[in-house]
Specification:
two-stranded antiparallel sheet; 28% helix; four-stranded mixed beta sheet; Trna Endonuclease, Chain: A, domain 1; alpha+beta
C-alpha cells in the first residue's frame, strides 16, 4: 500500500521557502524583501546617505543592458543580455552614477557580465 498526501499537505509543502543557492537567507525589512542580510544592510546604509543628501536617485534591482562593439549582446534565444545590480544611485559630490552589487559568492556568469559592463564604461562595485 502506498502513502498518499492530502491536497492541504501538498500545498503546505509547496509554500515552504526554497533555500538560496549559496546559503543566503531572504529577509524582509520595511516591507521590502531582500535576497540576503548583506543586501538589506547596505540598503539601510544607502537610505541614510540619501537622507543626508550625499546621494540621490537611489534605486533597487537596476537593469543594465549589455552592449558589444557591434550592438547589443544577444543570448542564444535572441534576447538582449543584461546585468541586474542590486543598487544604483548618483553621488552628489561627483555627479557620477554608481552601481553596486551585494555579493557574497560571485558566480562565473556574474563575473563575465561585470567585465562586459566594465568594458562599456559601467563600473559595478561589490559591497
Amino acid at each position: 500500500m502506498t502513502d498518499r498526501m492530502s491536497a492541504a499537505e501538498l500545498r503546505d509543502l509547496q509554500e515552504q521557502p526554497k533555500n538560496q543557492k549559496f546559503g543566503a537567507q531572504r529577509i524582509t525589512v520595511d516591507g521590502i524583501t531582500f535576497d540576503s542580510k548583506r543586501e538589506a544592510k547596505r540598503w539601510a546604509e544607502l537610505k541614510l546617505l540619501e537622507q543626508a543628501g550625499e546621494i540621490i536617485d537611489l534605486r533597487r534591482q537596476v537593469v543594465v543592458p549589455l552592449q558589444g562593439r557591434d550592438g547589443p549582446l544577444l543570448a542564444r534565444k535572441g534576447r538582449q543580455m543584461r546585468i541586474t545590480v542590486d543598487f544604483g544611485y548618483v553621488e552628489v559630490a561627483s555627479g557620477q552614477s554608481i552601481y553596486e552589487d551585494a555579493k557574497g559568492m560571485p558566480t562565473r556568469d556574474y563575473e563575465v557580465r561585470r567585465a562586459v559592463a566594465a568594458a562599456q564604461g559601467v563600473e559595478v562595485r561589490e559591497v
